[in-house]
Amino acid sequence: MVGTIIGVKPVDFTVKETGEVIQGNRLYVIAEDIDCFGKSCSDIWVGSGTPLEKKLKNELSDPENLIGMEVEFSFKANSKKVAQFDVIKKAE
User: Fold this and answer.
1) pTM for the full predicted model
2) Quick one: average pLDDT of 80-92?
């Protein structure tokens, strides 16, 4: 699916029950979707230390750099986990 990043939400919290620290960024992407009247929205999790975070390292240094970026992405079957993510066009 091809879409445009319209929002970035930094995430940093500790799970009370386990003490696990969750860090990363949630990308909000709007895209054309043939199964939708209008456009659809997806959110993509970019966890700290993941290959996707490394791929977007420069842009994540200032998350506003991601706003307007055109990307191509897909999810694993029956999952919200990203299978593929590529930058098509940098934000202007």
Assistant:
1) 0.88
2) 89
* Distance between CA atoms of residues 45 and 43, nearest Å: 7
Find the distance separating the first CA and the last CA of the chain, reported in whole Å. Answer: 21
**What does each C-alpha distance from 17 to 10, 22, 75 come to in angstroms?**
22, 13, 29
Lookup: tokens for 48: 């700290």
Helix (H) or strand (E) run with residue 60 in it: helix 57-60
23 contacts 46 by C-beta, under 8 angstroms: no
Calpha distance 36→76 (Å, rounded): 20
Cβ–Cβ < 8 Å for 31, 40: yes
17-56, pLDDT tens digit by residue?
Answer: 999 999 999 999 999 988 899 999 999 999 999 999 999 9
